[in-house]
Amino acid sequence: MTIFETLAADATENFLRNFVKPGQIVFDVGANIGQSALVAGELTGQSGRVISFEPNPAAFKGLDAAVRASGYRNITLVQKALSDRAGTFDFFLDTREEYTGVASSLRQLDDLAAAGKSLKSTVECITLDYYCVTHGLTPDIIKIDVESAEPLVISGGRGTIERRRPIMLFEFWETWWNLGFRELFEYLKPLYKLIRMQDGEDVEDFYYTQTGNRAVDILCLPR
Q1: What percent of the chain shows pLDDT beyond 90?
Q2: Cys-Cys with 27: which of 10, 52, 77, 139 at CB 3.0–4.6 Å?
Q3: In this structure, which CATH number among 1.10.10.10, 3.30.110.70, 3.40.50.150, 3.10.20.340 belongs to the domain 3-79+136-222?
Q4: Are 33 and 67 a contacting pair, CB within 8 Å?
Q5: What distance in Å separates the CA atoms of residue 10 and residue 24, rounded to the nearest whole number?
Q6: Cα 54 to the chain's mean position, in Å?
Q7: Buried/exposed 61-90: b ≥16 CB within 10 Å, e otherwise
């Protein structure tokens, strides 16, 4: 079994288990109810740190409870969204019952809006670069899962990314290729080798010759 077959089985957890080392700093962007935070907290150990960003109040409540129950003291919770600029902006909560109110995004999804399952709220946003500068931290690993707002997060972290080149994983909804992700890949490809974790395909070779309609995970390995 290749590393990509292993990683694809549970992409986020296996990404963390394959790349996070004790003592590192992990940014968990879109922490939801704590699935990634607890794995990263275990792997970084007492000498490392995990910074988990989750702006959705319902998800943050679950995240806070999970971290408290775990006993890990190396996890810091931040109830703000990361974006390309600071301020208070529209925020859209997914109200489908099966997601129990913990899915959300800075971008409104047309199908949810049409079905009346998108509730508009507001959220405070900061940038990744601002957080790093004001807290004196530089991430070794960044995981991003923010329901199609990944280009905004990375845009707000360009200084950190270009200086440190952390290993990254982000979710990509393939139908959003022409809604900010093409430009994101163009920005990242001189800095990183971009790989679809589901099958190990090179992103440039794959998406410039075909399209897709799945949610996949993109592994960014520094060049």
Answers
A1: 64
A2: 139
A3: 3.40.50.150
A4: no
A5: 22
A6: 10
A7: ebbbebbeeeebebbebbbebbbbeeeeee
- Both tokens of 210, joined, read 């075909």
C-alpha dist (Å) from residue 199 to 69, 109, 211 = 35, 27, 15
d(CA 152, CA 167): 18
- 141-144 and 104-105 strand pairing: unpaired
Terminal CA-to-CA distance of the chain, rounded, Å? 24
Task: Concatenate the DSSP letters of all residues of 22-46 into one string.
Answer: TT-EEEEES-TTSHHHHHHHHHH-T
Gap between the Cα atoms of 187 and 178, Å rounded? 14
Q: How confident is the model at residue 188 (pLDDT cuts 50, 70, 90)?
A: very high
Helix (H, G, I), strand (E, B) or coil at 66: helix
In this structure, how many other beta carbons lie within 10 angstroms of the beta carbon of residue 132? Answer: 20
Question: Token pair for residue 57?
Answer: 């109040």
CB 107 within 8 A of CB 149: yes
- The answer to whether 69 touches 44, Cβ cutoff 8 Å, is no
The whole model's pTM is what? 0.88
Nearest-angstrom CA–CA distance, 130 and 115: 36
User: Which one is predicted more confidently, 94 or 164?
Assistant: 164
**Nearest partner of 53 among 148, 136, 161, 145, judged by Cα:** 145
